[in-house]
Structures are given as C-alpha cells and as structure tokens.
Amino acid sequence: MSGNSESMTPRAKLAVTAGKAAAAVSRAAGRGSGSVIGGKVALKLDPELLGRLAQHLDVVLVSATNGKTTTTRLIAEALRASGPVVSNALGANMPAGITSALAGGSDSRFGVIEVDEKYLAGVARDTSPKAIALLNLSRDQLDRAAETRMLAEKWREGLAGSKAIVIANADDPLVVWAASSSPNVVWVAAGQEWKDDAWSCPACGGVMQRPGDDWFCGECGFRRPTASWALQGDYVLDPHGAAWPIHLQLPGRANKANAATSAAVAACFGVPPQVALERMYQVQAVAGRYDVVQFLNRDVRLLLAKNPAGWLETFTLIDPPPTPVILSVNARGADGTDTSWLWDVDYTRLAGHPICVIGDRKLDLAVRLEVAGLEFRVCESIDEAVQVSPPGRIELIANYTAFQDVRRRVGN
Amino acid sequence: MSDSSLRLVWVYPDLLSTYGDQGNALVVERRARQRRLQVERYDVRSDQPVPTSGDIYLIGGGEDRPQRLAAERLRRDGGLQRAVGNGAIVFSVCAGYQILGHEFINDLGEREPGLGLLDVVSTRGEGERCVGDVLADIDPQLGLPPLTGFENHQGVTHLGPSARPFARTRLGKGNGTGDGTEGAFNDTVFGTYMHGPVLARNPLIADLLLKLALDVNAMPPVDDRWYEALRNERIAAATAQPA
Ligand SMILES: [Zn+2]
What we know:
The complex is a heterodimer of chains A (412) and B (243). By secondary structure, chain A is of the alpha/beta class. Chain A has helices spanning 10-28, 35-45, 49-54, 68-79, 95-103, 120-127, 148-160, 173-179, 253-268, 273-280, 308-317, 362-371, 382-388, 400-410, and strands spanning 58-63, 85-87, 110-114, 131-134, 165-169, 185-189, 208-209, 216-217, 229-232, 235-237, 243-245, 292-295, 298-304, 325-328, 355-358, 377-378, 394-398. In chain A, the strands form three sheets. Chain A has a nine-stranded mixed sheet, with helices on both faces. The two termini of chain A are 38 Å apart. Chain B has 243 residues and is of the alpha/beta class. The termini of chain B are far apart. The chains are: A alpha/beta (412), B alpha/beta (243). Residues 201, 203-204, 206, 217, 219-220, 222 of chain A line the site of zinc ion (ZN).
C-alpha cells in the first residue's frame, strides 16, 4: 500500500512536517499531547491538507452528543481485522486535531475519525468519507452550543450532498431527520434513553407521539424508519435476522448500542459481525472512563457524564444500592458555565444509594438533591468523599473537568 | 381536579423546557409538600388543552421556533388566559416571559402576538447576547431578598404602565433596556429573564407564589440551609467577577 506522503504536493508535505514540529515543541513545553496545536499549524500552511490526508484512506466519521469517542474506538478495533487504522483515539475531534491524527497515519488503510457535532458537515465535505455513523443528538452545554435542532439541520444540509453510507440511529428522531437527506442510509435500532429533546417534530413542529419504542409525528407523517440492524438485549441482530452476542469490557446499555452501530459500520467494509464484535472486546477504558482505580484502599469506578442524556445512561449502569455514589460537578469553560442542566437529570434514580457530592458546584448539586428528596453529604474533596463512603466499590460520576480533576488526584 | 390540593401546571414542557426549566416546578412542588400540602402536578403538552382551574402555572424558556409554536398554540387554546381570569398565579421565564406580553419577535423575524397577560413588548436586541450571572434587588413591595440567577438571551423587553419591574439589576442585563430593570409583574403574573431553575437559587420566590395561590401571609419555615449556602456562593462569585 502506498503511503500518503508519496502522492502529496510539496506544500502538503511541508505542512505535515511543520505540524509535527509544532506538536513536538508543544509536547516539550508540557502543553499536552500537542496534537491540536500541530494540526492548527499544518492547516494554516495548507488549508486543504485534511482532504489530501484523507484521500488515500477509507474514512469513517463518527458523530453524536454522547458515545462518539467510545464508538470510534470500537469501529477502529473492528476494522483492524481488514487493515491498519489511523484514528483520533484521544478525542481531539475538531479539524485541527483530526488533521494532526491523520498526519500520523501515512501507512493506514482506514481513517476512523470522531468529529465534534458542530464540525461534521465541514469534515464530511473535506474528507469524502465512505461511511458516517450518527448515534444521537441531545442538549449539551447550553450556554455556548447551538440548539439541538439547529445542529440536526446542519447535519441534514451537510449530508444531502455526501456519497457516504450513513449508519444512523432509528430511535433518535433528530438523528433520523438529519440522516434522511442522505440517499444511502443504514438504520440501526440502537435505542435512546433520553427523549426530552425530541418531543417536537423536527420536520414540522408537531407533537411527537411515542407509543412504546415507536415514534411518529401526528401531523406530518414523519416516523421511525424500519431498521435493518438492531440492538436486542445482549445481541446484535443483523439484516439477515442472525443474532450475534455482544461481549464488551465496557459497561452499560449505551455501549451495547455503540457496539451494534459499530458492527453495522464494520459490515459496510466487509468485516462480518462476529469478527467485528469479537474484536471489540479488546476495548477497555476509554481515556480513563469506566476505569476502576484503587484509591485510599478503595475501588473507585470512574464514570464520565457530560449532559442530561449521559447522566441518564450512566444511572442505568451503576451497581444497585447500597453501592455508594460520589457525584462531582464543575462549571468551567469546557463544561459550560451554566449548571441549569442539573435540573434535567432525574436524580431520584439514585434513591437508596449513599451519596457524596464534591466539585466546584457541589452546592448546586446539594440543592438539586435536596429538592429530589435524597439524603447526601457535601464533601470538600475526593479524599474526604472516599473516606466517608460506606463499604463497597464506589461509583464516581463526574462531568468533564471534574472528571479530569479526579483522574489527576487518583493518579489515573 | 380535586379541591383540597394545590394544582401546579407546567405549561408545554415539550416546547418550553430548554434550561432546566423543570427545576422551577420541582422546587415549588417540593416546598409545597414540605408544608404538608397535597400537590397535583400537571405537565401539559402542547397538543393538550391547558387546564383552566390550576393554582400556579409555570412556563419555561425555549429557542425561537418552539417559542413561536408555543405562542400560536396558547393563543388558540385560550386556557391560560381563562386561568389568569380566574385569578391563577403565573411564573414565567425567558421565552415564556416574552409570550405573556403583547408581542415578541419570532424565529422568522416577524412580530408575533403574545397573550397580553403582562403589559410588556419584547424586541430582539442589536448588541451582544446577555449571558452570565445576575444579581438584582427585587421590588421592595414583594419583601424578598436579592435575586440571583443566570441569564442567556438576546431579547429586550419594554414595560408598559401596568407592569412593574420585578427587580433592579446590580449585575447583569435583565430586560436589556439599559434602565436596570429585570423582569415584570402585575398582581398575579410574573416574568423574568433568569432562566430555568431560578427558583432553586431563590426559594422565597417559590414561597411567594405559594402564598399568593393559597392567599396566606405566612407559611411554616423549611430547612433552607443548602439554598442559603448556594445563594451566598453564587452572589459572592457574581460580585467578584470583573463587571
Ligand atoms: Zn411532523
């Protein structure tokens, strides 16, 4: 297989080299992995670099509000059955980070790329993907992100001209509406716990009817498409009706849904579901998420939940009461500076768990839990919270920067 | 609906529930139950009639298109207007506040008629979006401690003669008119730009709504420890920010 660099223009080669140099400088200066800054330098020197880097790859894009990092890992693992894969595995999912990741994969056959929701249309235009996986769309960081329907509309416009096979979740009306502009869609019944962003029909504004797992608009006829793939309990049903068992090290229904979508993507590239699903077992913790760490002689499982839909899925996977739970919430830039989303999360689902709250916004959490009628303790630090938690493995659920704080403290 | 319960109506959560607006319903419900009141809560979707015999109606915020749809459906339904005619208490935030006025600018850039339950008219601001913490002094007539909240809106709301400003801002933009007013109210209808769970940071406003609905001057106290701690923290944080 010929590498990327052979067929690149001198300008593109220079851009990749300059980007790598910048990344090395950034790493040496202790500013993280350097992948984003490297990509920024490279893209400035050659704005079409992303497209050129993608030219020799079979590209898969993965976008969603929740689960895109994990699903990118699962798809990458599955496609490695057919050839080398380059991927932005660390979650640098905007154009600069993607460029930087692809620049490091000159001998790869597949590019499996997580894309931030806001950039999907642009990256899809630049990289001419073979497949695009769309998992879900829901409210996230309201003080700065666009509303979910606007995002769905951007997706819809962006996908209208794409030749990619779109693998989309039939159970999320916003995703279905976005994907239906594409001529070539594979629908996956992947489920969706969170429903509060799709009570209003994205097409006409009518009220959505949702009997059981079905959904349709009573006014314009927009309705759930028939899926060819489905998640059913611990199995993936393929288009022939065969059921393939899911064995993951990752917990929870949402990750089974991610595996089902990943199997459908892998099938587009000729990797059979059985092979794809077996390979997915390799994926352990993703950037620290789901890791069980030893801290102060206790087992603590680290769970990341960034928005109401994410918290809801996380509540479904934690061990039952009386397992102790620690909740940590910050409201720094990367989290969104507004904590109003806490009121969209149904914390009564934690009834029966001993609960400690920590983080910059522990008092917002305290009032939220008080109003939910739950018992809780407010602690100053992760150390104190772990020490006062009753015996048993502790489930720790944190939003983005709170999760990073905890990882640093527990040495993960 | 039975007569012995407090009837709490959350209007159109399918359209107007963007910023944790459910929080306001949860806080009112919780504080009523702590006073041993029976509470019946009705979450009314926009394809259902708005009940006319509720005691307290809560209306949340929403983006531009759902706001227009909500205004169209509320005008057609007429239930909320009849409820206010019956003396019901209404507390509205952001997009819901604008809908209660005479008109606002909709997602198509056109003037959309509201319900005329508050003597206010809303336009779209030309300047930057108002985003951030707010600290304001509530109209002394209401006997409440300072208002602390978070705003995120582009709207500008002008008050007519029969609406009073709900509060005067110390920090933040409020109505966006530059005169320091925030929100509006008349005898029974309240509106504010403080979004979503504003009652979580201002539980005594929730109590005011309960007192108005029950027509009582006082209620038994409840444990406000965590609310107080949160209020103090947020007020200190807002005050420490460079203006
Ligand atoms: Zn419709």
